[in-house]
Design goal:
- The complex is a heterodimer of chains A (291) and B (362).
- Chain A is built from 13 helices and two strands; from the N terminus they run H-H-H-E-E-H-H-H-H-H-H-H-H-H-H.
- With 291 residues, chain A is mainly alpha-helical.
- Chain A folds into two domains: 59 residues; 224 residues, Orthogonal Bundle (MetI-like fold).
- Chain A has a two-stranded antiparallel ribbon with strand order 1-2.
- Chain B has 362 residues and is α+β, with helices and mostly antiparallel strands.
- Chain B is 26% helix and 34% strand.
- Chain B contains ten helices and 21 strands.
- Classes of the chains: A mainly alpha (291), B alpha+beta (362).
- Chains A and B meet through helix 8 and helix 9 of A and strand 6, helix 2 and helix 4 of B.
- The complex binds adenosine-5'-triphosphate (ATP) and magnesium ion (MG).
- Magnesium ion binds next to helix 1 of chain B.
Chain lengths: 291, 362
């Protein structure tokens, strides 16, 4: 058990190491920074060599994300980006939440009430994720066609939920496995029924694990392209698919526009990860807590 | 009146038999200690009594009725777990209040009793903190408080002192006795520590490999152990058990002396000559010969000296038999390894066991 855990680490390692860490993280962050800068550049600045880091920012790219620049500028038509953006949030959000709910219940079962052959079931669940997605795409496409699911929210949400589940179950189970069953027995002796034990005792203890799982699942789902391309329709299209569509064009790739889309697209994942950051760190260091 | 009566309790985990026909009766209001080494089945016994574990066979009668079918929530018992098992995400205050809230006790009453127990266990300053910021002793008091707050009829304590340092352990022993006296509840206290069992338990059960070997007061266990195993468990330093053979005239032939005149004399008079026996001599029974020896005596060499302040423990060797003896510090002063000592003892208080079965002969 850790006693007197304090917030620590800030500045403790010394200036040299901090600088080193700063440089490394800058290298990591550079591609992201590059994209964000590009989003504010004019087409000339974007393509200039050597690249410009000091330039006059423009919001034209961001406007272009939402409005098609019609030559006759009066009837600037909507690009429909709001819809795709909403679709991305709605589809990824719903399927992550569903996977988290189902995954939590399933992994609690696997952890606390193991079946005969528990490990086999867990293994089988994971095998679906071992298949390269490209192998599954044709049968899934045909099934979606037949069942009328293609182009619907329900279809793609179900698919993403199924994709997220194996990983969620494995990850959340490891968090349930970590926590002491004595604590649950204590709660039962204190008068809690099974449901109380689950909601009041177990769930709060794996909060960090749930946050970590949610972030990883969200990132995977958020950026998924292949299935979204084939299984969503014009109404349910997600942002990655829309991004691909901007790649083609008579004037070549509009890097500024693409960068603006990506910049906007990054905001929700950034926000969620930032909000859950404290939990995340606790989730990753979970194993250090003595049972 | 007995509050808890266990008969023929049986519990296995796969091939491991944790509890093997355990019988136990605890009286109402008693401080009862369950003394057994690691893996003897202490935790499993308590878990069966509490209802966490379902026994394979046997009866557990609590207040006159069999509780084996009673769900864990309704047994009116509380337990302090070996590793405390505090709710890590709740503050001390919430930990203490949990049993009351789960039983639907009214909020004002909850607040009142939490305050009362926090006061009693000196936890006031920790109420707003979570378990991982508490010291070991504070965590343990929270665990005790959480068990006491529901006013259980039976309190199960599973090695509650094992995770504390020596000083705290000593203080807490006194604390438990005080709580027992003040609250008058029945306590079943499992421990591998003889000192804890003897100092707190009004009665003690010696547990070994999932079975009770003897139940008695500390004096009964010390003075009249029913087997060599119990004799070895109770008393520190450990009793010397010396292999010998019964001879004619109720005499026992030891490697270093012939002795007679113990309580056991009449019994062994009826034995076949050459029956193997174990003579039990407490280290404190061995005395240095001063003047003319008053009883059986022998020569021994000192092999190790362990000064403990008031007393010194000596490892000695007499005709190839290793023994321990305890001397007051003043008498051991100046002794060194290799010294030869003359030792005597009073045979009437010696214990005797059958060498094959280990049962006491008296
Ligand atoms: N859940 C379990 N699965 C398998 N074996 C178990 C389980 N619980 C206990 N045992 C075994 O049963 C025996 C008794 O264990 P128990 O925990 O009751 O001992 P104990 O006296 O409490 O020991 P300690 O002093 O080390 O806590 C041991 O051999 C142990 O390995
Ligand atoms: Mg134990």
């Amino acid at each position: 058990m850790r006693f007197f855990r304090k917030k620590q680490g800030i500045g403790k390692a010394g200036a040299g190491w901090s600088l080193f860490a700063g440089v490394v993280s800058l290298i990591y962050f550079f591609p992201v920074l590059w994209i964000i800068l590009t989003a504010f550049k004019t087409r000339t600045d974007t393509l200039s060599i050597p690249p410009k880091f000091i330039f006059t920012p423009t919001f034209d790219n961001f406007i272009a994300v939402f409005y098609r620049s019609a030559a006759s500028s009066q009837d600037a038509a909507s690009t429909g980006f709001e819809l795709y953006f909403f679709n991305s949030i709605f589809i990824a959000g719903t399927s992550v939440i569903l996977a988290l709910i189902i995954g939590t219940l399933a992994s609690y079962g696997f952890s606390r009430h193991p079946l005969r052959g528990n490990d086999t079931y867990l293994f089988v669940i994971l095998t679906t994720r071992m298949l390269p997605p490209i192998i599954a795409i044709i049968p899934i496409f045909l099934m979606f066609r037949l069942s009328g699911l293609s182009g619907t929210y329900i279809g793609i949400i179900l698919l993403y939920t199924a994709f997220n589940l194996p990983f969620s179950i494995w990850m959340i189970k490891s968090f349930f496995d970590e926590i002491s069953t004595d604590v649950e027995d204590a709660a039962r002796m204190d008068g809690s029924r099974d449901r109380g034990v689950f909601f009041k005792i177990c769930l709060p203890q794996v909060k960090a694990g749930l946050a970590a799982t949610a972030v990883f699942a969200l990132i995977l789902t958020w950026n998924e392209f292949l299935f979204a391309l084939l299984l969503t329709g014009t109404d349910t299209r997600t942002v990655p698919v829309q991004m691909a569509r901007t790649l083609g064009g008579e004037i070549g790739v509009d890097w500024g526009l693409l960068a603006a889309i990506v910049t906007i697209f990054l905001i929700p994942v950034f926000a969620v990860t930032y909000m859950l950051q404290n939990h995340l760190l606790r989730g990753v260091t979970f194993g250090t807590v003595k049972k | 009146m007995s509050i808890l009566k266990i008969t023929g309790l049986q519990k296995s985990f796969g091939a491991i038999t944790a509890i093997d026909g355990l019988d136990l009766t605890v009286e109402e209001g008693e401080f009862f200690a369950l003394l057994g080494p690691s893996a003897s089945g202490k935790t499993t016994s308590l878990r069966c009594i509490a209802g966490i574990e379902k026994p394979d066979a046997g009866q557990i009668e609590f207040e006159g009725s069999d509780v084996v079918p009673t769900p864990i929530q309704g047994r009116g018992m509380a337990m302090v777990f070996q590793a405390f098992a505090l709710y890590p995400h709740l503050t001390t205050e919430q930990n203490l209040a949990y049993p009351l809230r789960e039983r639907g006790i009214e909020q004002t009453e909850v607040v009142r009793r939490v305050a009362e127990i926090a006061e009693q266990l000196r936890l006031g300053h920790t109420l707003a903190r979570k378990p991982d910021t508490l010291s070991g002793g504070e965590q343990q008091r929270v665990a005790i408080g959480r068990a006491l707050i529901g006013r259980p009829k039976l309190l199960l304590l599973d090695e509650p002192l094992t995770n504390l340092d020596a000083k705290l352990r000593h203080d807490t022993r006194a604390e438990f006795k005080r709580l027992h006296r003040e609250l008058g509840m029945t306590i079943l206290y499992a421990t591998p520590d003889e000192l804890e069992a003897l100092s707190m338990g009004q009665r003690i059960a010696i547990l070994e490999q999932g079975r009770i070997r003897q139940v008695g007061t500390p004096d009964q266990l010390y003075d009249a152990p029913e087997s060599d195993l119990v004799a070895r468990r109770v008393g520190s330093p450990v009793i010397n058990l010396i292999r010998g053979t019964a001879k004619a005239n109720a005499t026992i032939n030891l490697p270093f002396a012939d002795i007679s005149g113990g309580n056991w004399a009449r019994t062994i008079a009826g034995f076949d000559v050459n029956t193997e026996v174990l003579l039990g001599l407490r280290p404190s029974q061995l005395k240095l010969v001063e003047g003319t020896p008053g009883g059986p005596n022998f020569k021994a060499t000192v092999e190790l000296l362990e000064p403990l302040g008031d007393v010194t423990i000596l490892d000695i060797n007499a005709a190839g038999v290793e023994m321990q003896m305890v001397l007051p510090e003043a008498k051991a002063v100046g002794f060194k390894v290799g010294d030869s000592l003359e030792i005597e003892f009073d045979p009437t208080t010696s214990l005797l066991f059958a060498a094959d079965t280990g049962t006491a002969i008296s």
